[in-house]
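Box 4.2: Ligand-aware structure prediction
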Amino acid sequence: MKDNIVILAIESSCDDTSAAVIRDGELLSNVIASQQVHAEYGGVVPELASRAHQLNILPVVDTAVRRAGIQRSDISAVAFTRGPGLLGSLLVGTSFAKGLALSIGVPLVEVNHLQGHIMAHFLEPSDAYRAATPSLQGVELRHPEYPFLCLLVSGGNSQIVRVDGPCSMAILGQTIDDAAGEAFDKCAKVLGLPYPGGPWVDKLARQGDPAKYTLAKPNIPGLDYSFSGLKTSFLYTLRDMLREHGADSVDKLAEQVPQLREDLCAALQNTVVDILLAKLKKAAQQTGIRRLAVAGGVSANSGLRAAMLDLGRRHRWDIFIPPFSFTTDNAAMIGQAAYYKYLNGDFCPVDAAPYAKTRI
Ligand code: KG4
C-alpha cells in the first residue's frame, strides 16, 4: 500500500537551481536551471550565483510541481539543501523552502548536500519520468546494499565515505587541500579551456597520450587525499615547456607542440584517477567492504568510470556508478535523502540556518 508521501526538494548550494518531486520514494520530476553567467569569469562568482538563484527558483519549483502532476496540497514536506555550499546561494533555497513550508503548513526536512550525492544511488524514476528522459532509456539502475564505500568526488569535495544506512555515514578519508574537481578545473583554466574544465579535460584526454607527461603524485598517509601538489606539478610542467620553446602563451606553445592540450589532459586525468582509486582500493582492503560506489560531479568522468569498472573486474568487487544525469548537482538526490529522513520523523525547525562547511 502506498503512503502518498510527497517530498518537494530544493537544491541551490552552488550554481544550479533545482527542484524535484518524489512520491513514496519514486522520482516524478527533477528540474535543473544551470547558470551560464559564470562562464566568462572562469569560475563561479558567489554574488552572481545568488542573484541567478533568486531569478530561477520560482519558475524551477513551479515547473517541477507541474511536471510531477501534483497539486500544492499534495505536498507532505519541503526539503532543502542546508549545506555545505556557497552561503548566499544556500540562503535563497533555504528561505524559499521555509516560506513555502510555512505557507502550506507542512514540515521542513534539511539535507546535507554530500549525503544527497550518495543517496543519488537510490533514485527510482517513475515510468513517466523514464519515458521523458532519453538518457535513462534502457539504463539499469542498481542500488547498493549496505554497507558500501562511496568515493564522493565533486568540485568542492574528495572523500571516501563508509555508508551503513541512509542516515548513517562516516568519512574514512578526505582531501587535506583541494578537491579532485578543483584540480581538473584549475588545470583546465591554465590551458585556456572554458569553465567548468572537468568535462573538457575528459573530452581532450580521449585523444591524448597519458604517458607523454609525468605529473607528481602525493604521498599522504592513511585514506586522505591531496591534489594541490598535482596542480603545482601541472603548472610547472607547462611553465618549463613555455621557457624551453620560448613561447609567451599556451596558444603559441600549442602551435609548436602537437597534441599539447590532449596529452596534458590525458596525463592529468590519468594521475587524478590513479590517486583516487589507490585510496579507494586501500579502504576496501582495510574495511573488507566489497561494494564500491562513486558519486558527485567528477563521477561523470569517463576515465574514472572505466577505471572503477576495471578495478571491480580485477578484484571481483561490485561497482555502482549512477547515471550521468544524477551525478551533478540536482534536487532529486536531495529529495531521496529527505524521503528517508521523513520516514524517520527527522524534521528541522524553521530557524535552521544554512552552513557553508561541514562534515557528514
Ligand atoms: O558535484 P558537482 O556538480 O558540484 C559540486 O562541486 O558540488 O561537481 C562539479 C565538478 C566540477 O569540478 C566539474 O569540472 C566536475 O565536477 N566534472 C568533471 C566532469 N564533469 C563534471 N570532472 C571531470 N570529468 C568530467 N566529465
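In the box above, the bound molecule is KG4. The chain has two domains: 6-141+326-343, 148-322.
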